[in-house]
């Protein structure tokens, strides 16, 4: 249930993001979701992709600074109020969210959540009627 | 152990009185015996009568390396050649060498300050000194030699080089003290381990100087040779080794200020800095006869420690040399030395020792940007931690240098590497 997310340290310089996507694309690694956290000087690109280990190795070989972190991916029905239910559940169990990103279309949304306590977060959500994305469904390998 | 307690632990007032008297004698001497200094003093409109106490030192002219070169070979001597008993010369990396002449009294001062140095490292007449500094024109070998003899120790004048012979004598003679450059000490240490004779060594202490070395080198030498490593500071222009020395507290080197009076000046304004501030180290010799020098600008940057030392000595101490005064920047009116920024960055394990400083001017205000490489293993996904790191570095720079810098974390290996002397500053202001 824990998904490995790849984070990439990027200076705010033209072409760095292009280089990341070019490298991943040419190695046949697919991006499922990503977000950019930015400050005035640098950004952190967070990516959920088909082969996090291979992507990490590839980017490091090409001089990028990367790290893997644990996140969960949650299915949320694309209806008003459902995300709030999920978040209420987490806060009731004292799990806080460091950051999250999502996109919803048609019937369902998938939300990537970085909690402060990953084990507890998984436990809470698994014991609810909400559905988590399995790592095996996310990775190709 | 303290070699000369009456001077090394002299009370403040008495020391000042000694310095006042000695400075007056020195100024009299150079004014009447050195055409070079007489001309310099006349240019400033001063005579020996203007110098009453050590505070008047600021009225005296500076001496630079260029002056010494221009006066090659003997133009700065204040004693006739009949009184000069020794000549040394520094290896001139650029142009002519710098020559120093010693009278018999100068040699005894030199022996005295070196004996203080060795005693401060815990040595006495029972020690066996292996002097592996080069003997010859270089002041290292003979300076250490006479100091160790004055102490009453047994001296092995082996000079530098011939590493196998060094190690053979070290084990056969049971040398207890080693004197050489820190880089040669490391080389010797490695050779000792290659030969597997480290257990046969009897070394207790080492006195290493004549080149800059780091705290890491000190630890490595101490561990590999199983001794305590002491720093010594000196320069040919002043006397050679023995200008300042480490005591057992090893928190700054004690300056033999009853012989060599130190000042710290702002290298741009040439005015003294506030007590404890970083600036260019300047020395005036106040007992030498052969070649006394007034306010010699070393171009070395450091700061002085005036607080009493736990070892009991009262003399002022100097920090390790932090860099060269030629590198100084003035940003928003504050003097900034790249070496200060470097030392702050080295305190943070999260960043690599690769940095670049950018100075520019926007809307008539100086901007100061410090780019420093993040270490790959210290990258975390946590944005607030990353921003917090930059903030902590900015805060530390503010407290050390007194100026706000904008710290930008950059990608590892993104700062240009250069062969030889790294170019670490880009000043885009067009001020001149």
Entry summary:
The complex is a heterodimer of chains A (141) and B (432). Chain A has 141 residues and is α+β, with helices and mostly antiparallel strands. Chain A is 32% helix and 40% strand.
List key phrases describing it:
heterodimer; A: 141 residues; alpha+beta; VC0802-like; 2 domains; seven-stranded antiparallel beta sheet; 5 helices; 40% strand; globular; B: 432 residues; alpha/beta; Rossmann fold; GMP Synthetase, Chain A, domain 3; nine-stranded mixed beta sheet; four-stranded antiparallel beta sheet
Straight-line N-to-C gap of chain B? 54 Å
Total number of beta strands of chain B: 21
Which bin fits the share of residues in helices of chain B? 25-40%
Flag low-confidence runs of chain A: none
Q: Please indicate the percent range of residues of chain B in DSSP E strands (runs of 2 or more).
A: 25-35%
The residue-averaged pLDDT of chain B reads: 93
Distance between the termini of chain A: 16 Å
CATH topology (fold) name of the largest domain in chain A: VC0802-like
User: Which structural category do the helix and sheet elements of chain A fall into?
Assistant: alpha+beta
**CATH superfamily descriptor of the largest domain in chain B:** ANL, N-terminal domain
């Amino acid at each position: 249930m824990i998904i490995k997310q790849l984070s990439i340290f990027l200076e705010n310089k033209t072409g760095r993001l292009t280089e990341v996507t070019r490298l991943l694309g040419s190695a046949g690694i697919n991006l499922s979701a990503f977000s950019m956290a930015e400050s005035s000087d640098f950004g952190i690109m967070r990516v959920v992709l088909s082969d996090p280990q291979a992507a990490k190795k590839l980017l490091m070989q090409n001089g990028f600074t990367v790290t893997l972190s644990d996140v969960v991916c949650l299915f949320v029905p694309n209806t008003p109020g459902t995300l709030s239910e999920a978040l209420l559940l987490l806060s009731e169990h004292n799990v806080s969210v460091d950051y999250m990103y999502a996109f919803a279309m048609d019937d369902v949304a998938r939300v990537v959540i970085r909690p402060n306590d990953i084990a507890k977060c998984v436990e809470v959500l698994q014991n609810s009627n909400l559905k988590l994305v399995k790592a095996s469904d996310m990775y190709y390998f | 152990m303290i070699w000369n307690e009456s001077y090394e632990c002299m009370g403040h007032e008495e020391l000042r009185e000694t310095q006042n008297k000695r400075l007056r004698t020195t100024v009299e001497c150079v004014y009447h015996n050195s055409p070079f200094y007489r001309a310099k003093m006349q240019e400033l409109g001063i005579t020996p009568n203007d110098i009453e106490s050590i505070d008047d030192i600021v009225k005296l002219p500076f001496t630079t390396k260029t002056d010494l070169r221009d006066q090659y070979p003997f133009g700065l001597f204040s004693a006739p050649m009949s009184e000069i008993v020794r000549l040394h010369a520094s290896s001139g990396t650029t142009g002519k060498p710098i020559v120093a002449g010693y009278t018999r009294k100068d040699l005894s001062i030199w022996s005295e300050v070196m004996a203080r140095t060795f005693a401060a490292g815990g040595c006495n007449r029972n020690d066996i000194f292996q002097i592996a500094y080069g003997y010859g024109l270089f002041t290292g070998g003979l300076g250490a030699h006479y100091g160790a003899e004055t102490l009453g120790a047994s001296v092995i004048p082996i000079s530098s080089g011939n590493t196998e012979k060094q190690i053979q004598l070290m084990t056969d003679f049971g040398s207890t003290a080693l004197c050489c450059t820190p880089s040669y000490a490391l080389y010797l240490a490695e050779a000792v381990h290659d030969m597997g004779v480290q257990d046969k060594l009897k070394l207790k202490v080492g006195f290493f100087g004549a080149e800059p070395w780091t705290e890491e080198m000190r630890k490595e030498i101490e561990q590999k040779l199983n001794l305590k490593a002491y720093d010594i500071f000196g320069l040919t222009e002043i006397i050679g080794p023995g200008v300042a020395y480490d005591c057992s507290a090893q928190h700054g080197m004690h300056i033999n200020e009853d012989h060599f009076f130190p000042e710290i000046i702002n290298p741009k304004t040439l005015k003294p800095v506030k007590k404890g501030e970083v600036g260019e180290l300047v020395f005036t010799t106040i007992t030498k006869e052969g070649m006394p020098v007034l306010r010699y600008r070393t171009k070395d940057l450091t700061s002085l420690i005036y607080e009493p030392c736990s070892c009991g000595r009262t003399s002022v101490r100097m920090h390790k040399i932090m860099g060269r005064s030629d590198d100084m920047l003035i940003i928003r009116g504050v003097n900034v030395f790249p070496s200060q920024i470097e030392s702050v960055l080295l305190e943070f394990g999260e960043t690599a020792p690769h940095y670049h400083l950018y100075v520019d001017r926007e809307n008539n205000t100086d901007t100061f940007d410090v780019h420093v490489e993040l270490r790959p293993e210290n990258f975390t996904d946590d944005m607030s931690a990353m921003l917090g790191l930059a903030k902590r570095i900015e805060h530390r720079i503010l407290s050390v240098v007194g100026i706000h810098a904008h710290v930008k974390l950059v990608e590892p290996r993104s700062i240009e590497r250069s062969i030889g002397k790294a170019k670490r500053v880009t000043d885009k202001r067009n001020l001149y």
